[in-house]
Design a protein that fits this description.
Blueprint lengths: L6 E4 H6 L6 H9 L8 E5 L1 H5 L6 E3 L1 H6 L6 E4 L2 E3 L3 E5 L6 H20 L13 H4 L1 H10 L1 H16 L4 H9 L8 H21 L1
Parallel strand pairs: 2-6
Antiparallel strand pairs: 1-2, 3-6, 4-5
Helix pairs in contact: 2-5, 5-8, 7-10, 8-10, 9-10
């Protein structure tokens, strides 16, 4: 078995290695009237590579500055990265299918940051909000326009991959829908319904 710290690649490399096809991302860029640009991708144990508390996702210059990550940053011996990039945690998402789905989500964030540079998300202003008021956190998270668009594109990708609506909802709430996660499921189902409607209109 090959022992490695991480895998660095690009979206186009993902396409060539069959990790995913990026036509959806190219179409999304065209729809938002943004030139499709390849991005560096880091797949690996993100918190170990970048530091405690960093879970990955779309990492732009502002993210590097807020997390006090030096640039260029050496993620492994002789491998340096600079923002913007997409970091995918292989610990939480070990399968290529999960990683491809996450890539679609995070690239949508990249496009949103280009078309809406002044956008500020409210759900992450208080790092303790998810623990102190879970309902408020999830409402802010799943009604945030940047997150809604990113989740919508991810939903479209997963539907085309054969994942059912029920499975997507269970994945979002961490298993079965319960009294505590019912509101989260409703908010996410609303995103799914909008994504399905978009797909019907795009036919």
């Amino acid at each position: 078995m090959v022992d490695y710290d991480c895998l660095t690649l690009t979206i186009k490399t993902c396409q060539r290695t069959k990790m995913m096809k990026c036509e959806q991302l190219e179409d999304l860029a065209n729809k938002r009237k943004v030139n499709f640009e390849d991005l560096n991708i880091v797949v690996g144990p993100i918190e170990r590579l970048f530091g405690q508390g960093i879970k990955g996702g779309f990492m732009d210059l502002d993210c590097f500055k807020k997390s006090e990550i030096e640039m260029p940053y050496e993620i492994s011996k002789g491998i340096f990265v600079t923002p913007p990039l997409i970091a995918i945690d292989s610990v939480d998402m070990p399968s290529p299918a999960e990683q491809a789905s996450t890539l679609v989500h995070e690239y949508a964030h990249n496009l949103y940051s280009i078309t809406n540079p002044e956008h500020e998300s409210k759900y992450n202003k208080d790092p303790k909000l998810k623990d102190t008021d879970s309902d408020k956190y999830w409402h802010l998270y799943l009604t945030d326009e940047d997150e809604r668009q990113a989740h919508s594109e991810q939903v479209k990708f997963e539907l085309k991959s054969g994942i059912s609506v029920d499975e997507m909802i269970r994945n979002k709430v961490g298993g079965q829908v319960t009294k505590d996660t019912y509101n989260i499921a409703l908010l996410f189902k609303d995103i799914i319904d909008d994504a399905i409607a978009d797909m019907e209109n795009e036919k």
